[in-house]
Design goal:
alpha+beta, Dipeptide-binding Protein, domain 3, 4-stranded antiparallel β-sheet, 10-stranded mixed β-sheet, 16 helices, disordered N terminus, 2 domains, Dipeptide-binding Protein, domain 1, globular
Length: 553
């Protein structure tokens, strides 16, 4: 927990780089060709054809945009309680009441077009109509390297969003742009260690930014676009990918072939439900009884074994991360979702809500069968297999769910606009040992919008959930640095969401990450997890890439 009225001093990024441990695992993958041209190759989920989009304010910019080109003030490490690492910012201080945040920025930082990064850029970012925090009341320059941000409410629990996730924008580029979320920003001007180099239908490349205050050792990074995990796995085996996080049931063969490998707890896997009829959601899932019945019908042990090869761990319906966040789970609240299916209990819930079984064994109400559609991203084989299992398990409980797949873009568009019934997706694990950010971003009314209206950048309440008790408790938790008061607020939130289940828990996914530790050094290790290694975590991935070095030959 960051304490009020305390100063935070940091080592330089150069010092961090020199302290990184080398993870050695023998010979390189057979046929390795990616390091011969000093270009590290990444697969981070892009699908073909690649469409240029380096707009950090759009819902789905290309991987690398956030972190490699645009950076926040600091990098926070979700894997430890250590102080954040400096990027544009060098130091920060909270006032005693948590309503004022003073930030120092480095005096040697430049945009990649050569213009200096100033306090005016930081003030612009935090006051720009499209990136302004909801509770910000003022942003002023204290001197040429210091900014004071003033908020209407204490921001102790929101420090990661402010300092570690808000991407700083160049005022001279973005000022006057009345539709910043609409363009693709094909020639981005950013503060990060890389600039966009080349783009084709199947790949795009970044090259080192010579204006960066700590020029990275890797000169070029190529991102591949691949349609599915199996194709990525084949390329790993062929030595054509140096860094990726994908699901692989055959991971041991890739490790035996010479790749470094790490498994870390990943983001919660959930069923998004468009839950709120008042905001325009349509379908049986708008009934809390249906959501509870699906929750009880899922056999999570089977899904873990058959879809995720035993690598996932149980998830809490409180949305707190088990193990890390146990102290925040209220007394009497369920710690984990049931691991085996209970179709009888699911049926009892539906019958109590007025559903009866028809001749086909499917529950119905007012003559309308309980039928839903559920999709996952095509090529996400673990999710696709889990979807089919959920379809079978729900059918055994008298619920007809049709599991299908669609493209990443359809997935992104659907959750942004709320035009879906069920989607098998994920929530982003909070970077601090505290569930506040999940509660705030995924559950509060401020962070959602009516169906058909696209969510604002950074707003993640895909379920369209709106509950005044949750809204008030989230505010109460943010307004205190007293753990007992915060825990009481979390208990109120948990009571509501365990009953309402706007996101139906499945499990905590495991991030399998493969990396070329023969040709490149400086990867996070079990002894030095200086960043979360999954490529799906954009800012962590970028921080790792800027700290890697080609191995000495």
């Amino acid at each position: 927990m960051l304490r009020p009225s305390s100063r935070h001093r940091f080592v330089t990024a150069a010092a961090v780089t020199t302290s990184l441990a080398l993870l050695a695992s023998g010979c390189a993958a057979s046929g390795s060709s990616t390091a011969t041209d000093d270009t590290l190759t990444v697969f981070a989920g892009a699908q073909t054809p690649v469409v240029a989009n380096f707009n950090p304010l759009s819902p789905s910019p290309l991987a690398g945009t956030n972190g490699l080109v645009y950076q926040p003030l600091f990098h926070f490490n979700r894997m430890s309680s250590e102080e954040p690492h400096p990027l544009i910012g060098t130091d920060y201080e909270f006032s005693a009441d948590g309503r004022e945040l003073t930030v120092d920025i480095r005096d040697d930082a430049k945009w990649n077009d050569g213009e200096p990064i100033t306090v005016d850029d930081v003030i612009f970012t935090f006051t720009y109509e499209f990136t302004r925090p909801e509770t910000l009341t003022d942003a002023v320059a204290i001197d040429e390297n210091t900014v004071k941000l003033v908020f209407s409410d204490p921001q102790f629990v929101n420090v990661v969003a402010i300092l570690g996730m808000a991407l700083i924008l160049p005022q001279h580029i973005w000022e006057g742009n009345d539709d910043p979320t609409g363009g693709t920003n094909e020639d981005p001007v950013g503060s990060g260690p890389y600039v966009v180099d080349e783009l084709s239908g199947g790949a795009y490349t970044f090259t080192a930014n010579e204006e960066y205050w700590d020029e990275p050792a890797l000169k070029d990074i190529r991102f591949l676009a691949i349609d599915g995990n199996q194709a990525a796995e084949d390329l790993i085996a062929a030595g054509e990918i140096d860094y990726t996080s994908i699901f692989s049931a055959n991971y041991q063969s890739l490790v035996d072939g010479g790749m470094g490998y790490m498994v870390l707890p990943s983001d919660p896997t959930v069923l998004y439900t468009c839950s709120n009829a008042e905001l325009g959601c349509v379908g049986p899932q708008t009934d809390p009884a249906v959501r509870e019945a699906i929750y009880l019908a899922i056999d999570r042990e089977t899904i873990t074994d058959k879809a995720f090869v035993g690598l996932t761990t149980p998830m809490s319906p409180t949305l707190a991360l088990l193990g890390r966040d146990d102290k925040w789970i209220g007394e009497g609240q369920p710690h984990e979702a049931p691991q085996t299916a209970d179709p009888a209990a699911a049926g009892a819930v539906l019958e109590a809500a007025g559903y009866t079984k028809n001749g086909d064994g499917i529950y119905e109400k007012d003559g309308v069968p309980l039928e839903l559609t559920m999709n996952s991203v095509d090529g996400w084989t673990d999710y696709n297999n889990a979807g089919k299992l959920i379809e079978e398990q729900a059918r055994a409980a008298g619920i007809k769910i049709t599991a299908g797949t669609f493209s990443w873009q359809e997935f992104s568009d659907g959750r942004q606009t709320g035009q879906f019934e069920l989607m098998l997706g994920f929530m982003q694990t909070t970077p601090l040992a505290d569930p506040w950010k999940i509660y705030n971003d995924f559950l509060t009314t401020t962070f959602t919008a009516p169906v058909g209206e696209e969510l604002a950048p950074g707003h993640l309440n895909f379920s369209r959930y709106s509950n005044p008790i949750v809204d008030e408790a989230v505010k109460a938790a943010a307004a205190t640095d007293d753990e007992a008061v915060k825990a009481a607020a979390y208990d109120r939130i948990q009571t509501e969401i365990v009953r309402d289940l706007p996101y139906i828990p499945v499990n905590i996914n495991a991030a399998q990450t493969f990396f070329n530790d023969t040709d490149y050094t400086g990867w996070p290790t079990e002894d030095d997890l200086y960043a979360y290694q999954q490529t799906g975590s954009a800012l962590d991935m970028a921080y790792i890439l800027q700290n890697l070095k080609p191995a000495e030959k």
